[in-house]
Amino acid sequence: MNIQPLSGIWQFRQVGTNEWSPAKVPGCVHTNLMALGSIPDPFVADNEKRVKWVAEADWIYQHSFSCSSELLAEEKIFLVCDGLDTLASLVLNGHELGHTDNMFRRNEWEIKPLLNSAGENVLTITFASPVKFIAEKNAIREMPGPYHSMGGGPYIRKAPYQFGWDWGPQLPPIGIWKDIRLEGYSRGRIAEVHLRQQHDSHQVAIEVRVAVQRWVVAPLKISLHITTPAGEILDKETTILSEEDVMMKVPISNPQLWWPNGYGDHPLYQVEVLLKGSDSASEDLLDLRSYQIGLRTIELRQQEDEWGRSFVFVVNQIPILAKGSNWAPAESFPTRISDEYLEGLIRSAAETHQNMLRVWGGGFYEEERFFDLCDRYGILVWQEFIFSCSAYPLNDPEFLENVHVEAIQNIHRLRHRASLALWCGNNEMEWGWVDWNWDRSQLQDLKVAYDQFFHHTLPEWCQAADPDHSYWPSSPSSDTPFVDPNGQRQGDAHYWDVWHGGKPFTSYRQQYPRFMSEFGFQALPPLATIRTYADKADWNMTSYIMEQHQKNASGNSMMVRQMLDMFRLPKDFESLVYLSLVLQAEGIRYGVEHWRRHPDRVAGILYWQLNDCWPVASWSSLDYFGRWKALHYAARRFYAPIMLSIEDKPPEQAVFVSNDWLDPWEGNLKWSLEKLDGEILTSGEAPVRAAPQAATQLCKLNFSDHITDDNLRSLVFIAELWQTERLVSRQSKCFAPIKHLSLTDPAISVNLHSKDGELIAEMISHSLALLVEVSLQGSDVVFSDNYFNLPTGRKVQVSCPMPAGWTLSHAQKELHIRSIYDSY
Fold first, then answer.
1. 274-296 per-position pLDDT tens digit
2. Per-domain residue ranges of the chain
3. Model pTM above 0.85
4. Which of 77, 103, 202, 257 is deepest in the core (most CB within 10 A)?
5. Cα–Cα distance for residue pair 556/753, rounded to 1 Å
6. Which fold has domain 319-523+590-638?
7. Any idea which architecture 641-742 has in CATH?
8. Is the bond into 651 cis (omega within 30 degrees of 0)?
9. Is 244 exposed, middle or buried (0-12, 13-18, 19+ CB in 10 A)?
10. DSSP string of 528-539?
11. How confident is the prediction for the chain on average, in pLDDT?
């Protein structure tokens, strides 16, 4: 085998022009034009509108290359394109190779007869405008779809969000978005590898099926190398004489099981499959495939129970409470995603006790590095096929065949992953058919095609290609076509009545889904992010630029309405940004804590959304730059394996502990009813024994003898969970809206010091300080805790890495602390 990369510096130009310019591959037209200074940054101000023309034009990429003698010595040479975005026509040395129309597919062409062995070769790829394509298709038959997206997106196999979403811009990229290379082979190559596992009691065997494409009749060998987490190497080899698939099985002694985050370790085994000639000399290597796997079983368990039918992910025979978020594409221009940035996002999810990400169906099938990280950090992946919020031409045989190749390629690519939990057909399409404002009388043929595809065709493809993972037709769904897709008795649910319906956060308590796979509330991004796209003159919630970076209709108005239900009118723009952040965190916390009090009924909680593709007001907990919003800090508390929560039904306060561990947990509960200045009216203490994988009510307290109309605005109930001398979890509850509380200046005192590269802030408040924000101006450090309540007289310590090059005195100057009191 011989691989020759073609990625690097190409040249490109707009069709109809003559001047070539350098282009980075992988890349896209937008990023290449930005590098040349030919267009402004689309993420700044309203530049999105100023670069609209880019996606409306056609573009040509060209590359000249010569082939090495080693490559030319191979019997067959293939041009391999891992991803072309999207409508591409390829010509090599004047010979047309073919056309592509699917950014999710890998394409290859056998090209050895077309190569110039003694000189340069010229590869030209012409990309047609996806915007013009979908407009022409949509003019013939209009497809229902998201109001914030360009019309016609369902006609093209391209990431839907790139045409615009209610958190994303209309910036559809064009170009070579994945690796491109030449691959040379002699005698044969590996066509397919299917890795499966057999678990029996405490024994595990890895079963490997290998399909070989061969063009000689001579014997070939398949070698299998498995490297354990400890570095032990297991080998097996067999000779193949025909075209038939080869099956090999390797028993694993003392198998180390892979567990989701919070349930155990995530050991990984490395598997190499080698195709060799009839002798085993290393120089006779014909092909090689490498895989990373974790030993585990997984199933989606659905069983009848008192509430309907369960929806529980079971790993290694242990039911898992899925805690996590929804993954949106991390960039409008995916080729700009760095390894460091991607790991930062996944690590941030893991650090907040998340064990599942739902890869939403409006983006793209994530790359190998994404799944590498999820494998390493113990993050399960709910993987959707790329269909979202629209009707699709699934009754078109040509479209269907295109999708068939796409689906099989990606199933084969991902089915071995330890992190893969589920295949899901689409996002919200079934819900759309049932409840959305679509003209169904004109769409009956597409509804029939939907049912056939997502309830019959696609699950059959999945079962044939990957029988080890469950399939789910849509999210949300009851699994019965067009019947109660957002029901509470079975399946998964999306609850949007708080955001889109304007209901109060308390309405979350009326919801008992079997699996909550989407719900959310918006916030502005941190001020440091707003600075990247808006000048100070635009720092107003209703300014033109601020509304250009709000893609949800009336989104800013909805934020302000809920904000004023909870908080006083902010004194300035910076305070408004702060209040939007804590408002989002408080709302999502309210829902999560409720569902965690019912783990036997609600087996999964995934908030919308983890991340952003550009700087914008959105539902994310991590902004475009990876900055932690208040919601992400709150997630570290409300997804903690041992979590205290309060179910407030005045005058009663019920205190619960949620225990995700597989063993009982013991500690102590301390509670007090206090005035805001710290005076204790009544208090108590009790030992705690929390049952495993359950929520336990610790007490129900009635304060009717202490609370009156005159003092309810000056009281707070505080509950704390302790284990020996360590505070494990704290909750507080006031008896009036925060805006009505009789708060006074908390006068928080801070003792700042450093130790072993950590900056440590010890804080104490002289009256109740709510939702305390700690920041270092000019640095994006992540603190051990943030946006927390600080009761009177209690010392709280938070820490963060000392920013590079900073001194303690500089940190003292840049340390900024604010609470609700400071916002008005």
1. 999 986 555 589 999 999 999 99
2. 2-184, 187-293, 319-523+590-638, 641-742, 745-824
3. yes
4. 103
5. 40
6. TIM Barrel (3.20.20)
7. Sandwich (2.60)
8. yes
9. exposed
10. HHHTTT--GGG-
11. 97
